Amino acid sequence: MKKNIILLSILLIFQTTLFSHSPNTANITGHTIDRVTGEHLPFVSIAIRGTTLGKTTGATGHFLLTDIPAGEHILVASFMGYERVEKSIVAIAGQTIEVNFELEPQALELSGVVITGSRNEIDRRESATVVGVLSSRSFDAVGATRLSEVLSFQPGLRLENTCIVDGAPSLRINGLGGQYTQILINSRPIFSSLASVYGLEQLPVGMIERVEVIRGGGSALYGSNAVAGVVNIITREPLRNSFAISNQTGIFGRGLTDINTTLNGSFVTDDFQTGAYLFAVANNRDAYDRSGDGFTEAPRLRSETFGFKAHHNLTNQSRLTLEYHRMHEFRRGGNMLDKPAHEADLAEQLNHRINGGSLTYNRFSRDYRHRFNAFASAQHIRRESFFGACEGDDFEQYGFQLFHAGDHHEGYGRTNDFTFVVGAQYTYSLDNFLFMPAQITAGIEYIDNNLEDHSDHREHALKQHARSFGTFIQNEWRNERFSLLIGGRLDRHNLMNNVVFSPRANTRFALNNHITLRASYAAGFRAPQIDDEDLHIPFADGLPVLIEMAEDLKPEFSNSFNFSVDLNKTLGRVSTNFLIDAFYTNIRNVFALELAESRHTPGQQVFQRVNEEGAVVQGLNFELTLGLTSRFIANVGFTVQSARYKEPYEWADDVDPIREMLRAPNQYGYITLSYTPTRRLTISATATYTGSMLVPHLEGYINHNELFRTPSFFDAGFRIAYEFQLSRLLRMQASAGMRNIFDQFQSTALNAGRLRDSGFVYGPAMPRMVYFGVRFLI
């Protein structure tokens, strides 16, 4: 084996010398090995910083870079699960140099490049902002097929179900509802209010490389809505030629199935100047009726997704990237699922067609001091919907018919939503600015969202054209031990009277190699515009529940403070990391919903969005990660918080005013355990905990409105996966697991039938499920 490797190296050098094309270029050859085991590492990314030049090592761990411009360069080797390594080299024209890398296994994945905290690529450990990362390791541990299934495995994050009929998910960060979170795709805010209703469940993990999370205000970087935090979904890049096909089938209830099939392919040219990553996903999930009364507690889902992400290196210092995705999803909940929606006693039916994409141009100087990018992103959503319920004998008590009357079927709707984002960003790095090295970033961004929602339940269509122009600037002083970032953003929003200035300040100080302190301040705001909850129509007592905005609704403004201590220590063979993150957010003119009389149509339950005086959300996030080399990894996160209005809030006339925010438990957390006794076998266990909280329950099935105190829930699961080497190029991974082992599920008001309050939902979204998977990789 060693003789073959030596011979291969000699042949590579000989070939390079023989076929060198330019007298002003050089070639680089070498290999990558695991520092602990001494084994060669395949598929390691080798790149020259400040250029588009690079490739991955082959199956034997060797690489060859040709036609490298002569001069000084920094060669970077990176691979998931290993420390990133950089080496300074001098390429001499007409010659071939050998550069070898020894990569240190990184059990805890504490390093790695992130971009969300500053809009620039930076090592996670040097970021002035705490950036959480969910990677493929997290996806595999949970056995996730949808993004929604993995988001709760980050401190401060909690995914909840907001409708028991159609399963609409919502992500809460640090106790604040989904409307306070800015969701990005490849750093672009094209995830509109309509996309937020069901989008987290529509995105398959097959298209996602990683998810970056920032807790705390982010309006200084990303504009309106980034009050609670930012979730940035980074889609996969083409790194090497590969292909994978997988299927995961879940079985739940009485023989019901959740079938997910995925195709992934990564293709790059021999010179690595052009590449494309393609994906296609199909999902089919049966509806679930927990109580056996014929009404579903989880909807039927049918979806297909496909898309690609491609790049072409225009020069050694410039790249063009194109991304596109198309999704189609049909979901139906209620009863009589085999009949048209308007013939059911209760039905919520949605048919989404989503087309989105982006075009990005990146250019940087050879010394990487100057970096510029221009981008355009867009997403169009067309939704056909039905929200309806029948009131039985009292069907026409209001003097009109709410639903199926003669040849006209009431309850249907259609929605068109188009979001367009365009902007540019420039970054300049200085060796010294005033007192230390610095990086100045400035940019502009225009966001345009045009929404039109027609529904038979409303007298007039919901129409909104929201436009926002923002410009931002920041400076970050940074060295290995200290960071200070100061910046701000100006936004001119057409739904607000005045220009909004959102400042931010972040600092990082490494006391030593083991202790890092971080502190931050950020302002945020939300414009008085249509939210995701306005575009979803639940039912209670057979009546539609609508949301209207008060005519005098004012914008929300927030101030967020965070302070964290990050402890990182290796004790013998055990690596440890302990993070304590304290957060405090003060919201002025906070939005709240109050039960009101309908201003247009009788026979409806209407909530009005009004301004309360304010609210304060504060608490502590804890995260502990332990790693015994890379074989055993434990990650535990827990949040203790308080989310309260400054003055008592009257949700309904017949309910006592409260200060506690709804759907905001004071404690919640998660745990993941992963054990890899051999390279081929992985065993993982996961669990989430949700403490007690207040959930509103509208009258109908019950005699009066009430605020229900839920029990706590513990949702646990496990997964076992083993990889078989079928041939030199073909591998197969077989897996099996279980979710919600203890079958934790809501037990209240499940047999309410057509009178149910579909917004009265809590606990895990799905019952116990056993699943089996197989994946073939080339």
Descriptive notes:
This protein is mainly β and 778 residues long. A hairpin with a 6-residue loop joins strand 27 and strand 28 (500-510). It is globular.
**Class of secondary structure makeup:** mainly beta
The biggest beta sheet reads: 22 strands, antiparallel, barrel
Tell me the total number of β-strands. Answer: 45
Distance between the termini: 23 Å
Mean pLDDT score: 86
Radius of gyration: 27 Å
The coarse silhouette is globular
Relative helix content: under 10%
Strand content: over 45%
Q: Which residue ranges are poorly predicted, with pLDDT under 50 across at least 5 consecutive positions?
A: 1-22, 392-408
Give the count of helical stretches: 4
What would the keywords be for this entry?
mainly beta; 5% helix; 45 strands; 778 residues; disordered N terminus
Task: Sum this structure up briefly.
It is built from four helices and 45 strands.
Chain-wise SSE layout:
Blueprint: H1 2-18, E1 25-34, E2 45-48, E3 54-56, E4 62-69, E5 71-78, E6 85-91, E7 96-98, E8 101-103, E9 113-114, E10 122-123, E11 132-134, H2 136-142, E12 157-161, E13 169-173, E14 181-185, H3 193-202, E15 208-215, H4 219-222, E16 229-235, E17 242-252, E18 256-268, E19 274-285, E20 300-315, E21 318-334, E22 346-364, E23 370-389, E24 412-433, E25 436-455, E26 462-478, E27 482-493, E28 500-510, E29 515-526, E30 539-540, E31 543-549, E32 556-571, E33 574-588, E34 591-596, E35 605-611, E36 614-628, E37 632-649, E38 658-660, E39 667-675, E40 681-690, E41 694-697, E42 706-709, E43 713-725, E44 731-739, E45 769-777
Parallel strand pairs: 1-7, 1-8, 14-16, 31-35
Antiparallel strand pairs: 1-4, 2-3, 2-5, 5-6, 9-10, 11-15, 12-13, 15-16, 17-18, 17-45, 18-19, 19-20, 20-21, 21-22, 22-23, 23-24, 24-25, 25-26, 26-27, 27-28, 28-29, 29-32, 30-31, 32-33, 33-36, 34-35, 36-37, 37-38, 37-39, 39-40, 40-43, 41-42, 43-44, 44-45
